[in-house]
UniProtKB/TrEMBL annotation, chain A:
Taxonomic source organism: Limimaricola pyoseonensis
InterPro entries (UniProt xref): AAA+_ATPase, ABC_transporter-like_ATP-bd, P-loop_NTPase
The protein's name: Iron complex transport system ATP-binding protein
Molecular function terms, GO-annotated: ATP binding; ATP hydrolysis activity
Domain of life: Bacteria
Occurrences of domain ABC transporter (ranges): 7-235
Keyword Translocase attached: yes
TrEMBL record, chain B:
Signal peptide stretch: none
Name the UniProt record assigns to this protein: Iron complex transport system permease protein
Pfam families assigned: FecCD (PF01032)
Methyltransferase recorded as keyword: no
Protein species of origin: Limimaricola pyoseonensis
Chief site of localization: membrane
Membrane topology per record: Multi-pass membrane protein
Gene Ontology terms: cellular component: plasma membrane
Length: 254, 336
């Protein structure tokens, strides 16, 4: 698979705050595939994504996108084909909902008309069309997440990098927005805590624990009771896209 | 925040600036009749020569300098608020004013007359501001990591405190005559500015404003957060450094020309943001216009309220800045 992978990560090592966070993670995502990055808190999922959206630097390892190593891309070129949903709070006071979406399209080189059309469609999808002039700092957490998701959908990059896309969202918008991402058939790398959502959307998943990748494959093959016990310290199993908790949660996790 | 809603702001603020500048030129300690005012402005040879001299050699360069400083400080403040993503950031946050004060006060109190004549207090103040800026940045930079806004703010506070105690020490041991002169400088005044003071700040303001407007879209991205800006293709660390350098240059030059002029860089960007929103392509020009209007008006009041005595700019600015500052604080408190 690695020869035709759209996104390839090889032996990635990342340090943050002087501490090693990711040790030798490798994964491949084929074009148009939805790949999940799973694992408990502190597993290093977000750190891998931060390297991909250029907020952190890898200590070693190689990343290729569409066959070209990441170091050969300019930041602008890279941002032209990738887009990230990030867990971060900005200073949105004085910006309307529409402004936030529009700022993301500033460097795309689209015509004014195309930009406006894309923004309208994305705001519609995110259920924010009637509130586009509202000050973004007055929105709730879920509405802000929808605003940032609308920006991403308006940009519609070839690679979606989603850090906890279901965060703060009610069930309706979790499904509406991820269904839309899926429908567009782009390549996706997303972190999830909700294993049922991961099973519903991901073609393949990589499970990480303490900075290493411990398993990779389809959700059904990967998320076995043994793995759930070992990685999450829970007794449970996946039935279709439903995660069923089957026993007491063990408290011996360190 | 559609732009159509705000089109009226541009002619109104331009008219305000024009009116403020005309008032600044027309009014002052020396009374000038309406007929003479027009004659002087149009260069009519029948205009009284002494009044013409006052307007052309004293008031006009002073009004222009004050407008330039108001615009520059306001631009610097707006840039700092964006770069640090902190609504209470202002141009002096990086210790610039304290560094400039310490250097200027040392110069006024201690330097022999020939050094003062050769270098000038403004130049010393600019060097002091540069020194403080360098120390603040030096304390904030962590190799291989992004410049953290919080670390810059803390470093700026530390550097400010250091230079403030130096300034206080210089004032304490200086002789009373020199100390009074130094205190006057510390509170900000545009008295005595001439045509020669204009070219450097003008060039710097034009260059920084043009650069900031050219990168207005990137400044907008910074508002969304560093990580989002990086994901959108912005090189955040060098961009932030460039913003700091531009803001420091404008602030250092304004301190050199008119001493410490507080509050404009903090309050005016907020006024502009309330009126027109936070998108930089609209915010920066409006903030600059309003900054010029505010400072020209305050300078006029400083010259005329207790004429022929002149009040320092800082005294009146603090008076006018307090109410809007409290209003903004309430708004910010509600948002945070």
């Amino acid at each position: 698979m690695s020869s035709e992978a759209f996104l390839g990560i090889r032996d990635l090592h990342v340090e943050a705050g002087g501490l090693p966070r990711v040790h030798g993670v490798s994964l491949d995502v084929g074009e148009g595939r939805f790949h999940g990055l799973l694992g408990p808190n502190g597993a290093g999922k977000t750190t891998v994504l931060r390297v991909l959206y250029r907020a952190a630097r890898a200590k070693s390892g190689t990343i290729t996108l569409a066959g070209r190593p990441m170091r050969d891309w300019t930041p602008r070129g890279w941002a032209g084909v990738t887009g990230a949903l990030v867990q971060e709070s900005g200073l949105l006071s004085g910006l309307s909902v529409r402004d936030v979406v529009e700022i993301g399209l500033a460097r795309t080189g689209l015509s004014e008309g195309d930009t406006a059309k894309r923004i309208d469609e994305a705001l519609d999808l995110a259920g924010l069309a009637d509130r586009q002039d509202q000050d973004a700092s007055t929105l709730s957490g879920g509405e802000q997440q929808r605003t940032h998701m609308a920006q991403l959908l308006a940009r519609d990059p070839a690679l979606y990098i989603l850090d906890e896309p279901t965060n703060h969202l009610d069930l309706h918008y979790q499904l509406v927005l991820l269904d839309e991402v899926r429908r567009r058939g782009r390549t996706v790398l997303a972190t999830f805590h909700d294993l049922s959502m991961a099973a519903r959307y991901c073609d393949t998943v990589t499970v990480m624990s303490r900075g290493r990748s411990v398993a990779t494959g389809t959700p059904a093959d990967t998320l076995t009771p043994d793995l759930l016990r070992e990685v999450y310290s829970v007794e449970g199993q996946l039935e279709g896209t439903l995660f069923r908790l089957e026993g007491p949660v063990r408290c011996d996790r360190l | 925040m559609t732009s159509a809603r705000h089109t009226w702001l541009w002619p109104v603020s331009l008219a305000l600036l024009g009116a403020a500048m005309l008032a600044g030129v027309f009014w002052g300690t020396a009374a000038i009749g309406w007929a003479d005012r027009w004659a002087i402005l149009t260069g009519d040879p029948a205009a009284p020569r002494s009044l013409s001299l006052i307007v052309w050699q004293w008031r006009l360069p002073r009004v222009l300098a004050v407008a330039l400083i108001g615009a520059g400080l306001s631009l610097a403040g707006a840039l700092m608020q964006t770069a640090l993503r902190n609504p209470l950031a202002d141009p002096y946050l990086m210790g610039l004013s304290s560094g400039a004060s310490a250097a200027a006060v040392a110069m006024i109190i201690w330097a022999p007359a020939w050094i003062v004549a050769a270098l000038g207090v403004p130049f010393a103040a600019f060097l002091g501001a540069c020194a403080a800026f360098s120390i603040t940045l030096g304390l904030s930079v962590r190799p291989g990591r992004m410049l953290s806004p919080l670390v810059v703010i803390l470093a700026g506070v530390a550097v400010s405190l250091m230079f403030q105690s130096l300034t206080a020490f210089f004032l304490y041991i200086g002789d009373p005559q020199a100390t009074r002169a130094a205190l006057g400088w510390l509170m900000g005044t545009a008295a005595g500015t001439g045509w020669g003071d204009l070219p450097v700040p003008l060039a710097a303001t034009v260059v920084v404003a043009a650069g900031a407007l050219w990168r207005a879209g990137d400044l907008d991205m910074l508002l969304l957060g560093d990580e989002r800006a990086a994901a959108l293709g912005l090189r955040v660390a060098p961009f932030r450094l460039a913003i700091f350098a531009g803001a420091a240059l404008l602030t250092g030059l304004s301190v050199a020309v008119a001493g410490i002029v507080g509050f404009v860089g903090l309050i005016v960007p907020h006024m502009a943001r309330l009126l027109i929103g936070a998108r930089h392509r609209r915010l920066l020009p409006l903030a600059m216009l309003l900054g010029a209007v505010v400072l020209v008006c305050v300078d006029l009041l400083c010259r005329t309220l207790l004429a022929p005595e002149e009040l320092p700019l800082g005294v009146l600015l603090a008076l006018f800045a307090a109410p809007p500052f409290i209003f903004i604080l309430r708004r910010v408190r509600d948002v945070l």
